[in-house]
Design a protein that fits this description.
Blueprint (H helix, E strand, L loop, with lengths): L1 H8 L2 E2 L6 E2 L7 E3 L5 E3 L16
Antiparallel strand pairs: 1-2, 3-4
Length: about 55
Amino acid sequence: MLMELAKNKKWRRCPKCKFYVEKLQGCLHITCRCRFEFCYGCGPSWSSVHQCPQT
């Protein structure tokens, strides 16, 4: 049931700790509660030169 809700809301999971995160506004740069930084659009770890193909 949670996974269905996450799919409907288009939540992403942190690649490191698998916690669900939701982007409400702003850029695609996400910092999870485990402190892992990743791209909300495509999933890999974030870097200052990241180019997301989803934008």
